[in-house]
Amino acid sequence: SDIEYQSYFPTTTKKSSDEVEIELIDKFLTDYFNLNPKINLRGCYDRWSMADKHFAKIACQFKGIRILRQDPVENLFCFICSTNNNITRISQMIEKLCNRYGNLIYTLNGHEYYDFPTLDKLASSNVESELRQLGFGYRAKYITQTAKYLTENYSDGEKWLSSLRNVDYNEAHSALLKLSG
Questions:
Q1: 93 closest CA partner among 128, 131, 121
Q2: Which letter, b or e, does each residue of 153-181 get, where b requires 16 or more Cβ atoms within 10 Å of its Cβ?
Q3: Which residues, in sequence order, are bridge partners of residue 107?
Q4: Cβ neighbours of 60 (radius 10 Å)
Q5: Dihedral, CA atoms, 56, 61, 64, 67, nearest 10 degrees?
Q6: Per-residue pLDDT tens for 29-55?
Q7: Which residues contact 98 (CB under 8 A, 6 or more apart)?
Q8: Does the pLDDT value for residue 1 go beyond 80?
Q9: Which of 7, 9, 2 is nearest to 35 (CA)?
Q10: Does the pLDDT at position 8 exceed 70?
Q11: Could you tell me the end-to-end alpha-carbon distance of the chain, in angstroms, rounded to an integer?
């Protein structure tokens, strides 16, 4: 309830009603920030504090910490890019990935914003060599192999990744281990 946000929409999108738009934004933000009122945040803090001594020391200073529910496809490829990397470089790589293969969604103050690429775009030919030229190194191979695996083995790879939210940890872990990187 203490979160403030601002949303920007593509100028090419025809908006239906303001009410529908606000409902969609609310639904997205509730899911993304894990704001479901059924979540026992106190219980989460207790579990996290038991697992992490540093968190236990600082938890009282940060009320409302949540585990984000990032889009599973974006999360997967961000994780692949994170191998042996720092936050600044990971952010740069993801921005390059979006700028090169994502769709332009908005321009604000002269800065263009791109959506995260689809699995089909990441599975396209020449992506690995282009990513290597963009500085992705060995991760380029993992990105293309994972995208190809998902597009070739599932009718909807995005839906399959999302479905892993609803299975137990061991099943999700085993499924994700089949992916490169």
A1: 131
A2: eeeebbeebeeeeeeeeeeeeeeeeebeb
A3: 112
A4: 9
A5: -50
A6: 888 888 888 888 889 899 999 999 999
A7: 114, 115, 116, 117
A8: no
A9: 2
A10: no
A11: 37
